[in-house]
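User: We ran a pulldown and think these components assemble together. Before we commit to crystallization trials, I'd like a predicted model of the whole complex to look at. Sequences follow.
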Amino acid sequence: MTGGQAAVVADELRTILVEVTGRDELRDIPVDTPLFGAGVGLDSLAGTLLLRQVKRRYGVDVAAEDLNLDALATLGTLADFLVARS
Amino acid sequence: MTERIKCVVWDIDNTLLTGVYLESGEHPPHPDPQLLGVLRELAGRGILNALASRNPPAAAEYVERVAGTDFAAIECGWGSKADAIGRIAADLSLAPDAIAFVDDDMLERAEVTAALPAVLVLTPEDAAEVPGWPQFSPPVITAEARRRGQMYAERRRRQAAAAAFGGSRDDFLRRAGTRITVAPAKMADLHRLHELSVRTHQLNSSGEPLGEDELARMLESPEYRVATVTLADDFGDDGLVGAAVMTGNGGSPAPVTPAGSPPFGPTGLAVTVPLVMMSCRALGRGALDALLAWLCRSAKASGAAELRVPCLVSDRNVPMRLALAAAGLRAEPDGVAADGRAIFARPLTGKLPGLADWVTVE
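Assistant: Here's a predicted model for the assembly, 448 residues in total across the polymer chains.
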């Protein structure tokens, strides 16, 4: 099972989100928090910074592999996407 | 093809100054009058100036004062010049081939050439001549372009305030007194629209510049509707930062007929957006989100059932794809066509993206 791995990745992603948005309160968000809209409120700037860090940390180019960026639906979907490619 | 230079990164000692700052005691060296003239000439053409120096920040402050122009970015420190240029490029969202670097020191020039081969590396003697070079001569210089250096200086202050703020993006936009206006484009906007279509890459859906004649035709045609976005806040006024071209229901009261043969239509039931573009200055400031929300709402108001945005899929305009995804648009199942584009679409039913209260629609 990859559940444990996904939890570790989700936690690392929380740290990255805090870095790229400058918002400490994102350190504790649940895995089902939407990254766009009312959840994290990711916009093109924060989203680009997130994808850059993800590429650096996991070697996965999400934008190249996921045309619709559906991987960015929630914190959990992004963690699963990365675990599936590690 | 020769790339257009958008930013010149200057060394200080024996380049912009006629001597070495730290060796000159209480009387810092005079600026080099010829290079100072070049610096101001380039700023007047909308080309940014930046500093990369191994001096303490006081040297940059001195140069800023005596030069009398704004520097878009300042890097002072003992690290390598290539790293400093890399940070300036990231900070200003520029590709290395849009940057020129001027330094009197051969070793510094060699190091930058090796690490960043796309950067145009120049001696101070070369730099004195660049106003005559084509890559330093933009075809059109708008009022926005002339103010560009000042805007980046305003941006430096805005970013410092945002970093100290700590709340959500929207809280900061409100605190900063952000004002976004979506308005119909006018003929007077033509130069700026053309400039945006040439200069924008990260936030450009079509990936193809539009000629002024083509834009003028769109502004006059009843089959197109062109909307502009202007952006200002308490830190400064960025003017016209973005635009969208719509066709289909959005461009005329009735469904467009094939006789008009617009390049991306006609579909009748959908509004197609052949171009969305936004200056990277507006990144992170809600302007593109506002434009896309307005496009959804305006298309729906015109009776359309769907909004369609053909978007080039490249690694350069990922920020545009992020904004499309955030506004609820998804690629059609056939994915990326032979021309490198995918149609991103969304039905105009259900909950449409909202317009923030700092957005005005004219």
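The interface with chain A takes residues 162-163, 165-170, 202-203, 283-284, 286, 288-289, 313, 315, 318-323, 325-326, 330-331, 335-336, 342 of chain B (CB under 8 Å). That may be worth checking against your pulldown data before setting up trials.

User: Thanks, that helps.
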